[in-house]
Amino acid sequence: MSDRSDDTPVVGLLPVMDPRIDPELAQRILGYLDLEEKVRSLGFEVVWAGRAVSVEEDAVAEVRRMRSEGACGIIYFTAWFLRANVVVGACQHSDLPALVWSIPNLDDTSLIGFGVTHGSLDEVGFQHEIICDEWNETSQRKMSAWVQACHVKATVARSRYGHVGGNCLRMMTADSDPNQWRRQFGIDVDHAEQWTLIHDAEKVPDSETQPLVDEWKRDFRGVEVSDEVLTKSARLYLAGKRMFAENGWDFAGVKCQFELLDNYLAPCLPVALWNDDGFVVACETDMNAALTMYVLHLMSNHPVMFSDIQYLNRGEGWARFLNCGTAATRLAGGRGQVVLRNCPEIQGTYDEASGTHLCKGGACPHFVLPPGRVTLARFGRIQGRYVLHACPGESFAYPHDENSLLGIGAVWPFAYVKIEQEMEQFVANLRAHHMCIVPGDWMPQLEALCKLWEVEVL
Question: What stretch of H or E contains 392?
Fold first, then answer.
């Protein structure tokens, strides 16, 4: 649904000055400030008029032009003292996030203009971010995080989510209100049935699946599943890609248990590969995990690990995470670091009449997340109000026992993470058994996005 052919964020830049400043002096001030180059140095495209504005009508016309040219937010630089209505009016008519920026200088009155602008926007209740500092690492990091958050907000607001199947295993934390998503985030929620995916998969010819099966046998470090499982995985993978494209989805959730798992195949490998491809898919139709993964992927351009928190060592401040079968292979460092093993039979429905589980198998990517900085996050709701539980962490090497969890330690993907949040607070803040893990520290971007969305960060 959204067009992300160029993911470089575009931001508007609007310097504002006192109308008493003559054009020659205004250009001299803008010359030594070099504002456009400062913002471009952060990796963003900049839309601006190459001059300052001083009256409201001019400012409104400029921000409307910036919006039409794809700006995801507007940076208002207070270059001198100014008339506060100029920025207030521009914010009122832009329908875009606002950042008020000042670089205090002994030779100009930027800070005075900043003070009256910031206070005026608060007077009328217009949300805005502020930067009042030298052009240093701190101010650059804050501006970068804000622009990225604006870009993610704009992208999410034109996105469509595909929900394949109904509620999984009665997980109340996995459900959300599609109308709330549309109202609060701008997301369109579409629905499809897992049986449609199964029927579409069965139509995929061998001529399309065999090249994939051969490729997987070459690429993965180990393949300990049958060719039948690989072929069905290829059918699901290709059918899913077509379903996503035909419906115009930007991200999705797949239920799995039990229609797919009991009647066709555990979709672990397809889900992993869809995420490797850059198309976010959450397991178990967990809408809030899908939203979290999508946001983190847009920020990082990296796959996100959908995981269960399975063990917590409070004394040492770390946790073990796992997923019941799937994680993108790029998280491991590539397919060469991953072994495909068969989905445990116990995952399927237990049939009392036959005394067996109905699981039809599936290829599970097995690896342990490599060491490095990570961000843990999950959107959730408290009495209908959205919040985000997020904290930084450090994935670390641990003597992983493949015999643990009755041998499942050798089948599923795992992660060992040092939690950088007080443990009692971390436990209290858990929004579900599912959390999302992405390499890197994305806390500034998440906090900036949540401020734009008016979502509390726990």
Answer: strand 385-395
